[in-house]
Amino acid sequence: MLNSRTLLFFLFFSLSPFSIGSSEPSKTSNAKVFIEEVSNIYMASTYYIFKQQSLINQSGGDKSSLFGKPFINNIKHAYESQFNKKFPKENRRLYTSLLRAMIDVMEDNRTLIYDDQLNFKGLIPATFAFQLSEKLAIKGLGVKIKFTNFANSVRNKLNLPDQWEVVAMENFKKHKENAYFDDQSSLNGIPAYRYFVPLKLERFCLNCHGTPKDNPLNIGLKKSQWSNIDMTGFTMENWQLGDFSGGLSVIIYKKDFLELEQLCELNYISTFACHFFALE
Length: 280
Prior knowledge:
The chain is of the alpha+beta class. It has helices spanning 4-15, 27-51, 53-57, 68-83, 93-108, 110-113, 125-138, 163-175, 206-209, 254-265, 271-278, and strands at residues 143-148, 180-187, 190-200, 244-253. A 4-stranded antiparallel sheet has the order 1-4-3-2, sandwiched between helices.
């Protein structure tokens, strides 16, 4: 039985008059656009998840909008609202795979989301990011996504920054840049495209990272009864609106991007083949 890699090359040589060695795709520019879009799609998904916290945590009710195609449609709406442009066409393997992984993460949390005994489910943007990155790793897609910050500001130690991310954050704090794309980097000795987007604290972030007055758990309590422990059980950092809050780090191994993405985009193999490998 043919494995997916063998079948890929069979389909490629069967459907294309060209050979891999003769193609000259614009590797870096395509990768930059792609990794930016992956970042934007992910940010839209976390924005939607935050906006749905009351639905996620409520007891009972219709929660179908958190699963399957309705969930993806809502992410698309959030994307278009946030970035004021059309959602990218799903004609690339990793776009399709990213959306599929998002559906899988929510499905993994279905029992939790419908658990009426829990007032707080813990499915917040940060945990969604961690679970999504794990899902992508299991699928072997060569994509890593995480929220990170300087070591003294990271809650989940699995999100500690590596040296590349530390340098990126130091440059952002110094030069106030918008985003950084590096096509000459690596991770664990493997060549990779790396992208970092700095994040400033937005109003919804204050619920967990702000001051006690921002803590939803303190609503209705006297000030003397306020707690600086947020709904996730962590001590609030007392950050202010607009403060630097780390950033989103996206890594795509070059071999994974170039191996199939360029072929699909340039129609060297059929759309059916691209989507076949996206769903494996």
